[in-house]
Amino acid sequence: MKTLLLNKEQVGSLICMREVIGTVEEAYKAFNSNQVIQPDYIGIDLPSPRGDIDFKLGYYKANEVISMKASSGGFINNPTTYGVPSGMGTILLFDARTCALICVMDGSLITGLRTGAAGAVSVKVLARKDAKKITSIGTGNQARMQIRAISEVMKIEEIHAWDSTRETLAKFKADIESEFGIPVIMANSKKDAVEQADILITTTRGKGPLVEAAWVKPGTHIVAIGTDTQGKQELDPELFRNAKIVNDSIEQCIEKGETWHPLVKNIIAKSDIHAEIGEILLGKKAGRENDEEITIFDSTGMAIQDNTTSNRIYRNAIEHDIGSIFEFLKG
Ligand SMILES: NC(=O)c1ccc[n+]([C@@H]2O[C@H](COP(=O)([O-])OP(=O)(O)OC[C@H]3O[C@@H](n4cnc5c(N)ncnc54)[C@H](O)[C@@H]3O)[C@@H](O)[C@H]2O)c1
């Protein structure tokens, strides 16, 4: 049994953001076409100063691949005490016809790539066609990935950014301006930043509402990324009252996404959720219908995004003869 091994550098060289936008779009369509088996993900929380590790499992019938991604995070002493990053990722791919292990790859880049691509896919179907200005609440890793991906699907003229830490915000400005040449305006308040938005992305680790409903102008598209587990929150639940609400997976978003908050407060009912994004991509439900509506894409992240993206990396590696082979079983 031959298993292909791919390290982080190889993974990074084998796929570009444009290709990931395609694999994520494929994943969303597959999810709404009865092509996916994706059990609830499981994880283990370890006592502080350690963090947590979770395992996301997905089977896609069309590519006959089962993927499992292990992601850890929050191990703050790792770099200084053990010389390893505070968060890591590894992906295993199995051939679903035999369940042979066909690939082991570093997974630390894939979460960011597919999460950025998720935002870009939502922009394609839910943002106004004349959108130019992006507001970023949060300026960490995922914020950078959103900008990287969204700049593939539209021309961003300026970015208004806010962060709770001024140094993090200044670093974001320097990095984005040098990498993409897009001007970044460092906002003095969240309100100042949000009021500018055609597209609002939220990518913090916030645990309470950061964006008030009154600040969001008609026609804004919101990409809600940060809230992917219970206990996190970035948006005023009132924002959902009159918005067009789109989830990646309704089942996940009503349990651990931003959509949970207006539901428990009875601001919306489950039936007020307009669609899963795959339904819009498949043409079963409408995307944006006018320039006035506020659209919210709540993303919690799905195993099938990891599956289609890592499978493409694997196929590209085979095609270009990259990686090394390990035989767990001889013969
Ligand atoms: N939806 C998905 O598919 C998906 C995928 C990956 C990560 N995430 C989530 O996105 C969030 C951001 O991830 P990241 O990798 O960019 O993290 P990061 O640590 O790189 O950046 C986090 C940002 O949030 C800010 N922040 C931290 N705590 C805050 C608080 N209490 N209030 C306001 N701002 C705060 C930080 O200053 C920083 O700008 C996390 O919650 C992560 O779990 C979601």
Structural notes for this entry:
This protein has 331 residues and is α/β, with parallel strands linked by helices. The chain has two domains: 2-110 and 304-327, ornithine cyclodeaminase, domain 1; 119-301, NAD(P)-binding Rossmann-like Domain (Rossmann fold, 3-Layer(aba) Sandwich). The protein has helices at residues 8-13, 17-31, 78-82, 110-126, 141-153, 166-180, 190-195, 250-256, 260-264, 277-281, 303-320; strands at residues 2-6, 36-37, 42-45, 52-60, 65-73, 89-95, 100-106, 133-137, 158-162, 184-186, 199-202, 207-211, 221-224, 233-235, 244-247, 273-276, 295-298, 324-327. Strands 1, 2, 3, 4, 5, 6, 7 and 18 form an eight-stranded mixed beta sheet that branches. An eight-stranded parallel beta sheet has the order 10-9-8-11-13-17-15-16. Strands 12-14 form a two-stranded parallel sheet. The N and C termini lie close together (7 Å). The relative contact order is 0.19.
Sequence-ordered SSE layout with sheet pairings:
Elements: E1 2-6, H1 8-13, H2 17-31, E2 36-37, E3 42-45, E4 52-60, E5 65-73, H3 78-82, E6 89-95, E7 100-106, H4 110-126, E8 133-137, H5 141-153, E9 158-162, H6 166-180, E10 184-186, H7 190-195, E11 199-202, E12 207-211, E13 221-224, E14 233-235, E15 244-247, H8 250-256, H9 260-264, E16 273-276, H10 277-281, E17 295-298, H11 303-320, E18 324-327
Parallel strand pairs: 1-7, 8-9, 8-11, 9-10, 11-13, 12-14, 13-17, 15-16, 15-17
Antiparallel strand pairs: 1-18, 2-4, 3-4, 4-5, 5-6, 6-7
